Prior knowledge:
The structure holds 3 protein chains of 3 kinds. Chain A is mostly helical. Chain A has 13 helices and 2 strands; from the N terminus they run αββαααααααααααα. Chain C is globular and about 70 Å long. Classes of the chains: A mainly alpha, B mainly alpha, C alpha/beta.
Amino acid sequence: xxxxxxxxxxxxxxxxxxxxxxxxxxxxxxxxxxxxxxxxxxxxxxxxxxxxxxxxxxxxxxxxxxxxxxxxxxxxxxxxxxxxxxxxxxxxxxxxxxxxxxxxxxxxxxxxxxxxxxxxxxxxxxxxxxxxxxxxxxxxxxxxxxxxxxxxxxxxxxxxxxxxxxxxxxxxxxxxxxxxxxxxxxxxxxxxxxxxxxxxxxxxxxxxxxxxxxxxxxxxxxxxxxxxxxxxxxxxxxxxxxxxxxxxxxxxxxxxxxxxxxxxxxxxxxxxxxxxxxxxxxxxxxxxxxxxxxxxxxxxxxxxxxxxxxxxxxxxxxxxxxxxxxxxxxxxxxxxxxxxxxxxxxxxxxxxxxxxxxxxxxxxxxxxxxxxxxxxxxxxxxxxxxxxxxxx
Amino acid sequence: xxxxxxxxxxxxxxxxxxxxxxxxxxxxxxxxxxxxxxxxxxxxxxxxxxxxxxxxxxxxxxxxxxxxxxxxxxxxxxxxxxxxxxxxxxxxxxxxxxxxxxxxxxxxxxxxxxxxxxxxxxxxxxxxxxxxxxxxxxxxxxxxxxxxxxxxxxxxxxxxxxxxxxxxxxxxxxxxxxxxxxxxxxxxxxxxxxxxxxxxxxxxxxxxxxxxxxxxxxxxxxxxxxxxxxxxxxxxxxxxxxxxxxxxxxxxxxxxxxxxxxxxxxxxxxxxxxxxxxxxxxxxxxxxxxxxxxxxxxxxxxxxxxxxxxxxxxxxxxxxxxxxxxxxxxxxxxxxxxxxxxxx
Amino acid sequence: xxxxxxxxxxxxxxxxxxxxxxxxxxxxxxxxxxxxxxxxxxxxxxxxxxxxxxxxxxxxxxxxxxxxxxxxxxxxxxxxxxxxxxxxxxxxxxxxxxxxxxxxxxxxxxxxxxxxxxxxxxxxxxxxxxxxxxxxxxxxxxxxxxxxxxxxxxxxxxxxxxxxxxxxxxxxxxxxxxxxxxxxxxxxxxxxxxxxxxxxxxxxxxxxxxxxxxxxxxxxxxxxxxxxxxxxxxxxxxxxxxxxxxxxxxxxxxxxxxxxxxxxxxxxxxxxxxxxxxxxxxxxxxxxxxxxxxxxxxxxxxxxxxxxxxxxxxxxxxxxxxxxxxxxxxxxxxxxxxxxxxxxxxxxxxxxxxxxxxxxxxxxxxxxxx
Lengths: 392, 344, 370
């Protein structure tokens, strides 16, 4: 109970930080963003104040929760019985070990921060800003002088007599080749990438795990067939396969996700099968069969929960990998539309002008690096902690 | 069973895997309904309908897919891998591939050397000073390498070492290509550095090396993290073993304990991993080649994918798949020699 | 000197005084050693007997300086030849381990490096003492015949430093070391030593591996020999062989041995004196025959009673009620008091110290005074 409160407190604090920063940004930027809430147009200033207040409340509330949790721990705990109590105790030990590792804690903070950001991004920045000039859906146009700007005085020379943009907006990270504010685009791009990674990782893990479990448990011909198929997939480097699939499937987001999914499920199959094999060697499977348990029950209630840890580790690490590969695909030109706010896509649009407008590549890539690094830190720490030989 | 029996078994298996790979790629490249039309690389806008039909007939694209596959199999057994599209001047696919493959090999070899040279010590230090500062630092370095987008890092390197160095007046490294002095040296192996050494032409070799550093480092940075983590994990496991306690109880110096007793055990998984890495690098260097305009096979394959050139893609994927499977085999065999307990 | 004389003369090689060691774990502080007092005399075999978890191995590891990182020595001294070993630097401890303190461990399969040949693992011990090898090579040159390991055993520890100016090459030193390897394997009764040297540990049988480990310990010509449960992992016949070997070696080498075991019969077979350990303390110590004939501590008494007698038929096996104490929250005072049928109030309060009850026979129990 106390642990949950503490975790909840930490998450609330992080959300609070996001809100506070967003509010401050809205206030300071003078961005001119307007929201429509309930048919009332709200300016960024007002929105910013609200965000700021909400953020501070959440910060304080989260901190309070963690203190309460600490006090609650002093109360004696009820002794619990049963397998779930054992699993819970194991989990608490895991979390304790994780807490001792500063890198993992930092990584998870950052990761949660970005997840929070991806959930809130559409509230912070108006998504309509992403659609640039010339696209038929939108008549909004950006002043010509805003292309490739950072800071106000550096711009790629488009011709004689171009006047620099002197408007009210502040570009903290410069603009891209359409004149869009890069910071806003990055904020909009984060949910695209994160959501993508979540979908692909979860689906690939689930799918791969189930197939691997089936293969390992049933054995025989099924296992051989599955192994050969995954061998074929393994014979490709991930990027090549994803490229080929992407080229063939077409360039919409769902098809790209499918392409990545097809590339990413084989490792789980191998992993799960290995786990199943070693679990089968332990005595309890035979014992359960002797007691009359059905196959499905053994598989789902006993074997899979015991083998779940390496899958979790792999999934967390793969998260970063999927984001990187996805943005690499975008970078190479597979994006559904060139103006889609996505980190790889943003980098691609700056490719030709890399030396004159380096910010276009630096910042999206940096963001990508930080997100992937955060998740990899967590996954790596998890792997350290969950390795049965290194425990205790 | 003996080793050679095992190897033969694996080689036969490899043939099947390659067949599977080729069938998959064949289907994707030529038969997939939403993909690019297989004759697309061979036509240009000025062609008439009859010309297009002629192209289709020459290449056999008017036949059903499995007949095409059969023809393709028959052809490759005669050494004819088909022709590439207009984007590569219609030369035979294998010729295009082979003329660029050495560059990719050179890049991969250099990258592997760097990976091992940096990643191995990083992993060992991490394990020996477990959970202290050097461990955390090398962990961050390793994971950063692992999390960096490949396109981004290449650019940053170019930005700093080429652009800014030039502006600041420092000696700079070239940003693209494999060599600045094309044609000065006879082409023996196709790899600029080796050719330069063989010809005894020092300025050429140095120039080739200068071109090699940045892309090789860019590639290596991404994989050295992975190697370091694996080495660390296996070193940690080894250091906990009982025989390390005995070695220490003998009064051996700690350095001897580590180098003679621990490393030999710990490096086994690292060696196997490096072999697989090498193969993967060969196939996956395409983004780095693209960013650095390195005339290797990877960036060619990118263009092939966009053009829908099935012939070239087939050559490319088959060679890479063969390399990967062979690397797996070599690594498994090497295992036998490294760990005396393993018998097949 | 007779053992009895030694005890009177207080001529001990190793003395452990009030040793306290804790382990820092997730679940809490494990108070493994709670004030261990032990004396080891020259040329004796001391049997350290106790149940699993009572701290026997920890004592051995502390003497050797091989405790893991989460162990803390919070008190006591270990005097080896007059110097406190606990205060020595790691480097000095290493030198001590290379020359004076040798150990043989329990399971030779996990304690031998699986990827190195026996020769590599044995020769590195000899190569630790290049001076000795050099001397041996010189002696061989001088006398014209090869030096055996038994000869080396008789050479005194502090040989004159390189007074001779005859040069000995590295190759000759290596050859000497190799020869000594073969010789020492013969000494531990391993057949066909040359072939064994070329083999890997997993290719040998359990008994042969154990002998190889003993050879590695012997090669240092130690003053103190610690044998940690060396008969536990082998079957009874091999056990007998190894004990026989230990007895033979004891007469040849000038070392004292600490024989750690949980098996009383092994101790009875080979030890001169027995020290009984319980819950991190030594509770009774004395000559073997005396302990068996006249056990004084309640724990020892119950241990003796628990051994089934082959000659007399018995209906039920007697066991000691209760379980081994968990060392995170050990019982206060005398750690045996929860299971002791004679427990008194003062047993709960303060731990009794070892006092000499009968001649040469010490016990830590309030029943016998204190």
